[in-house]
Amino acid sequence: MTVPPPSAALHAPVPSPTRQPQRPSGRQRAFAERTVRKIRRRRAANVAMVGLTYLAAALATVPLVLILAHLLTKGASSVGLDFFTQMPKPVGDAGGGMANAIVGTLIVISIAAAFGLPVGIGAGLYLAERRGTPLATTVRFLSDVLNGLPSIVIGIFAWEFLVRPVRHFSALAGGIALGAMMIPLVTRATEEMVRTVPTSLREAALALGYPQWRTSLTVVLRTALPGIVTGALVALARVAGETAPLLFTAFGNQFWSTALDEPVAALPLQIFTYAISPYDEWHAQAWAGALVLLAIVLVISLVARFATRARYGGGGD
Amino acid sequence: MTELAAPARTAAGAPALGTGIEGSPVGDRIYRVSIAAFAMAVPLLLAAIAIAVFAAAWPAFRTFGPGFLTSSRWDAVEGAFGAAPAIYGTLVSSFLALLLATPLAIGVAIFLSEFAPGWLRQPVAFLVDLLAAIPSVVYGLWGIFVLVPLLRTHVMPFLANTLGLGRTPLFSGPAYGPSMLAAGVVLAIMVLPYISAVAREVLLAVPRSQREAALALGATHWEMIWGAVLPYARSGIVGGVILGLGRALGETMAVTMVIGNRHEIAASLFAPGYTMASLIANEFSEATGDLHLSALMAVGATLFAITLVVNAIARWLVWSVSREGAP
């Protein structure tokens, strides 16, 4: 006995029923109704749940819109030329600016970049070039762990090693703390970007007689550079807004200071001090400071985004 | 190091051409040693952080022993320090944040990976990601002047009176404003982008065949997601949530500004409290003596240990998924 293949079975003429079509019995009708109800219920559940995901997306954008709106309405009026060029005014006087805090933030994040970028890029190169070695696996994991550490713990680290022994707060300690926070971000970005460099490029350089170190530094790293710059900017944007580690290290300063071994003002610290103060003039300054800080962070992030886009958009090198 | 003696290999694992024959073995050696040194800097840094934190915390741990973690007395004048209220506050505020943020974040991730029309996908993803770019202190400022008044005048009365939850201990007591609830809401907004980013990535890694199979069996879109996509992505999403937990536990400035800073274990979410990070930030500059300072550092050490464990678990979960999920 041969069984016809399934396709043949499908197309075989259906043996015509000898019975006359009947009216469905009560049980059949009940069954059909139940099925229809069930399908309706499933469809309704589908619409409801899909609608909920739309609602979630809408809700998730509300806080951002609210925060931006409040920053603009409460902060914009106090942001003028004075804000960038004047020193803070004493309590009771309206106006004044945060020139020292803006400069202080620039100093601190410059130190952070000087410390965090070389270490992060070097470690990222190692992870990409020697991946699979036990050290690489360990370093990758630990760098993720470092990334997850609370910033305040990293502040304690800088305080214990750089502030406590010398008995005074310093811009340097603040920069080192922020630099330590940058390292895992830069490491990860470098590793990912170096990995995307085609092997053929590397092989071509080696075939031309380049030693490995020159291949890595002048061909591979250079090709990956735009991506690494993006990663570095993202890391900078993130630490520029950090406050907690600076409480123990840079500490803040009401006066003009650019010395690396002295307490220095920073924009986030100044915003914090002003926000928790009881004075209305200071609250206004805090809003203005927050607006400026957010603008700095967003500009850095957007530049980073465009750096990536230029790379993939085929703008050439 | 034995790797140095082995023939140079390219990233793909093929033997590198050139090196070893001519080229510059000395230069290569210097290069390899220096990048290995930079790589070693990461474990060393982590070790230095651990040493610094525990060294600073040691006097307090020695004085109070394990009772430091369970005592709820914090009296700088008498030199009695116990971290229980701060630990409690950290756990409650973070848990509350996850409770609020997780459904929302997963909803956003599902929307972005499954339903969003093409023109909406990029902008919504960008706006949600932008939440992660806002500095903590800006959240705190917004929390003090916008969120806390809003909670005090509208949300808290609504929860307590309109919904009638005021009789339960969780929502009882006067509505001051700065409270555990405020901290939980701010934290929820702050961890939302982290959870949603990981969830989105994991959902996108679910193979197409999984979805098509469910649809072919007659599932509706939602049944496909519930029955085929989410189970596949589950441990990755859990990893993302735990990653968000790590963020919430360590968040300092925004919480310090809205939680009210009081050493007390209160059942009500309307009551002010403390978290470990906010305790350190708030009292550091006014610490009265070495023991007080060391007690704050001991709180930091506890926080360090907790986040270390939480992050390790999260990484492991996310990694296990991305390794299996890779096509």
What report would you give on this structure?
The complex is a heterodimer of chains A (317) and B (327). Chain A is mostly helical and 317 residues long. Chain A has a domain at 97-312: Orthogonal Bundle (MetI-like fold). Chain A has helices at 6-11, 26-75, 81-85, 99-129, 134-148, 151-163, 171-195, 199-207, 212-240, 244-248, 267-275, 280-312. In chain A, helix 4 (99-129) runs antiparallel to helix 5. Chain B has 327 residues and is mainly alpha-helical. Chain B folds into two domains: 2-63, no CATH class; 67-325, MetI-like (MetI-like fold, Orthogonal Bundle), CATH 1.10.3720.10. Helices cover 71% and strands 1% of the residues of chain B. Chain B has eleven helices and two strands, in the order ααββααααααααα. Chain B has helices at 25-64, 67-70, 84-115, 118-133, 136-162, 180-204, 208-216, 221-250, 253-258, 276-283, 290-325, and strands at residues 74-75, 80-81. Chain B has a two-stranded antiparallel sheet with strand order 1-2. In chain B, a hairpin with a 4-residue loop joins strand 1 and strand 2. Chain B is flat and about 70 Å long. Residues 1-22 of chain B have low confidence and may be disordered.
CATH superfamily of the domain at 97-312 in chain A: MetI-like
Helix/strand-derived category of chain B reads mainly alpha
* Percent of sequence in beta strands of chain B: under 5%
Uncertain parts of chain B = 1-22
Short key terms for the protein model shown above:
heterodimer, A: 317 residues, mainly alpha, MetI-like fold, 73% helix, disordered C terminus, B: 327 residues, 2 domains, two-stranded antiparallel ribbon, 2 strands, disordered N terminus
Topology at a glance:
The complex is a heterodimer of chains A (317) and B (327).
Chain A: H1 6-11, H2 26-75, H3 81-85, H4 99-129, H5 134-148, H6 151-163, H7 171-195, H8 199-207, H9 212-240, H10 244-248, H11 267-275, H12 280-312
Chain B: H1 25-64, H2 67-70, E1 74-75, E2 80-81, H3 84-115, H4 118-133, H5 136-162, H6 180-204, H7 208-216, H8 221-250, H9 253-258, H10 276-283, H11 290-325
Antiparallel strand pairs in B: 1-2
